[in-house]
Write a structure and sequence with these properties.
184 residues, alpha+beta, two-stranded parallel ribbon, 7 helices
Length: 184
């Protein structure tokens, strides 16, 4: 099987209240994880704010790096990684993403799961995920094993330290999206 498809993992730190709280605890440069099917980040998914102006209600979201929540935090820092996958893994990933898209109203943010990470106890709740748990689950269910721990214990640091991911950009998210707009 040829590894001729590429997916992207985006790590960010927006400076939102939740990201600052996570940073205080972890001291990690990135506090949020998203997954994209394209380098331009047009198909970017995660668990986070459903409405950019409301930090309380969270769930499955298609993120917009220009007009969505990131527009509220223009100084967002990011690291974008690429990962080569084979055709079967890519098709499974798209199928898994479609399950989330088709049922997006069922999903909520797994805030309790964040406390589970602190206690090193996986907290799984049906239809509830936090960002890194979502990305890890999506990858595991697609046959892509790059992080070797329970999905409910995966955090942004695990992706940042993963040797299978190739760093392709690090800096301000708005500068990356601007570069992609110029190149398109």
């Amino acid at each position: 099987m040829d590894n001729n498809k590429v997916i992207y993992i985006l790590l960010t730190h927006s400076g939102s209240l939740l990201s600052r709280c996570i940073y205080v605890y972890t001291r990690e440069p990135y506090t949020h994880v998203s997954i994209s099917l394209d380098k331009n980040l047009n198909e970017l998914y995660s668990f986070g704010r459903i409405r950019p102006s409301n930090p309380i209600i969270g769930g499955f979201v298609k993120e917009d790096v220009v007009n969505g929540t990131y527009a509220r935090f223009p100084e967002t820092r990011c690291a974008l990684y690429s990962l080569k996958v084979n055709d079967i893994q890519y098709k499974r990933l798209k199928k898994e993403l479609n399950k989330f898209r088709m049922n997006e109203d069922k999903y909520s943010y797994n805030l309790l799961g964040l406390f589970g990470i602190m206690l090193r106890v996986p907290v799984e709740r049906k239809y509830n995920y936090f960002c890194s748990q979502f990305v890890a689950t999506l990858l595991y269910n697609s046959g892509i094993f790059i992080v070797h721990k329970h999905a409910a214990l995966v955090c942004p640091e695990d992706f940042r330290e993963c040797k299978k991911l190739k760093l392709i950009y690090e800096g301000k998210l708005k500068e990356y999206s601007y570069e992609m707009k110029i190149c398109s």
